[in-house]
Amino acid sequence: MHKMCVMGVRTSWRTVADGEFFCPDCGGDRNYLRRTGQRRLTVLGVPLLSRGVTGPVLECSACHGHFGLDALDHPTTVRFSAMLREAVHTITLALLAAGGTSSRAVRDTAVDTVRAAGFTDCSEDQLLTLLAALAADTGRLTGTYDAVTGGHCGHHGLDPCGTALAIELHESLEPLAPHLAPAGRESLLLQGARIALADGSYTPAEREVLTTVGGALMLRPADTERLLTAARTPS
């Protein structure tokens, strides 16, 4: 014999927005409804007195689980992939600006790195053209960059901590870092190190860029130094 529920609280939900998010329970990208609720005391199933509002919550369209708005802080898989591609691209440009492009080995390594990150159509000409455009913005580079010779006039390469390009490194890497495992953050730094080492040892400007990259990726200075030293040592 079932007992009748005489009194209870029922929530009436109202959808106020929708979108796509990474569902923690599903483990993948899903659509969501952003909903707010009105709680009411019910007697014999009939809603009577208001008991206040609840939410807002995100309701997954697949599993129907409810999550706090902080679930939107986790990028979707599509967005995460785009952030990773942009991070590699920005690191590559910063290192080319710092070390120049006179070395064929550096140019080839840079193109291969960007292509492997997802920009499969990237070409050497595209990178050189973009570098020349960056050089035209005096707020980005400390000297005049020559995309043909890979040299700088008036200064010795990139001043990574005082330019807009360094700011772009932070803007690109800092939002990504919390969503990467330690090995993922180290991998990004090492990809940059391989570009810098393609023509020999690190130049001071390249090393400064890589130190900036390590900091933006939330790596400890000692770990950044360890990784850069290991990358320089033949296996």
Can you offer a commentary on this structure?
It is built from 7 helices and 6 strands. It has 2 domains: 7-72, no CATH class; 77-148 and 157-232, no CATH class. The strands form 2 sheets. It has a 4-stranded antiparallel β-sheet, with no helix packed on it. The model is unreliable at 138-162 (pLDDT under 50). With 235 residues, it is of the alpha+beta class. The relative contact order is 0.11. The termini are far apart.
List the helices and strands and how they pair.
Blueprint: E1 7-23, E2 28-43, E3 46-60, E4 66-67, H1 77-99, H2 104-117, H3 124-136, E5 144-146, E6 151-153, H4 164-173, H5 182-197, H6 204-216, H7 221-232
Antiparallel strand pairs: 1-2, 2-3, 3-4, 5-6
Helix pairs in contact: 1-2, 1-4, 1-5, 1-6, 2-5, 4-6, 5-6, 5-7, 6-7
Protein name: TerB family tellurite resistance protein
Domain Co-chaperone DjlA N-terminal: 157-227
Pfam families: TerB (PF05099)
Number of domains: 2
Query: In one word, what is the shape?
Result: elongated
- What sequence of helices (H) and strands (E) makes up the elements? EEEEHHHEEHHHH
Gyration radius over CA: 26 Å
Which strand-content bin applies to the residues? Answer: 15-25%
Biggest sheet features: 4 strands, antiparallel
Q: Total strand count, please?
A: 6
Tally of alpha and pi helices: 7
Low-confidence stretches: 138-162
How helix-rich are the residues, as a percent range?
40-55%
**Numbering strands along the chain, what is their spatial order in the largest sheet?**
1-2-3-4
Mean pLDDT: 83
